[in-house]
Design brief:
Blueprint lengths: L9 E6 L2 E4 L5 H23 L6 H25 L10 H19 L22 H10 L15 H14 L25
The chain binds heme C (HEC).
Length: 195
């Protein structure tokens, strides 16, 4: 009886003293391997021949669109409730507002709100309305023609509320060398020359 399982299996090559036995691969391994081949054929037909599934680029575009829809729905909901908004007094929210202000708004309005490219946000003179809701609207819509950026879609609704609440706390503070008040332009009262 043959007690040596290796007998007759030794292959006739050798490298650096290492020899190889011609063992059969385990059945489960061979079947796993066969399955990957079957899977790849199905995959190729499904995605590349029949075009039944979305490839990466299409999947990305779909996800992106869904994200944009969620975003614009949130913005629309936020904007429809703007009229009743009140400035937050919550410390965490104001802290977040300050962080956003320093990052995004200070380059134009100065860290202390004194005004630089943008107007002074601490005085009683306002170009686009003085109350909190007016401020929120200006922040959302911007004044593109005058260099105030539109923050809709850049900051999310919570961030817009927070940063506007922080701006609200700047009222009545007296920064050094503030930018002079700007709204000296009087609003037109009668019909314009073109009407
Ligand atoms: C690129 C410069 C710039 C940046 C950045 C900027 N602003 Fe302005 N902002 C302006 C200008 C310029 C105006 C004046 C617009 C006008 O004259 O109609 C303005 C106006 C405003 C007003 C209205 C002031 C008024 O008198 O009615 C508010 C409120 C305001 N900005 C808040 C912010 C906030 C909050 C941020 C940050 C999220 C910000 N701004 C970022 C340039 C900027």
């Amino acid at each position: 009886m043959n007690n040596n399982p290796s007998e007759g299996k030794l292959m006739d090559h050798e490298a650096d003293g290492i020899k190889e036995l011609d063992n059969l691969l385990p059945r489960w391994w061979v079947w796993l391997f066969n399955l990957t081949i079957i899977y790849s054929v199905i995959y190729m037909i499904y995605y590349h021949v029949a075009g039944a599934g979305d490839l990466q680029a299409a999947e990305y575009t779909k996800e992106w669109k869904r994200g944009e829809e969620i975003k614009s729905a949130a913005i629309t909901k936020f904007e429809s409730g703007i009229a009743t908004l009140t400035p937050s007094t919550n410390k965490t929210e104001l802290g977040e507002g300050q962080r956003l202000y320093v990052n995004y708004c200070a380059p134009c309005h100065r860290p202390d709100g004194g005004g630089l490219v943008g107007p002074n946000l601490c005085d009683d003179y306002w170009i686009h309305g003085s109350n909190y809701v007016d401020n929120v609207k200006t922040v959302i819509n911007g004044v593109p023609a005058k260099g105030m950026l539109t923050w809709r879609g850049v900051l999310n609704p919570d961030q817009i509320k927070a940063v506007s609440s922080y701006v609200y706390t700047l009222r009545g503070t007296s920064p050094k060398n503030p930018k002079p008040a700007e709204n000296t332009v009087t609003a037109p009262t009668g019909p314009s020359a073109f009407e």
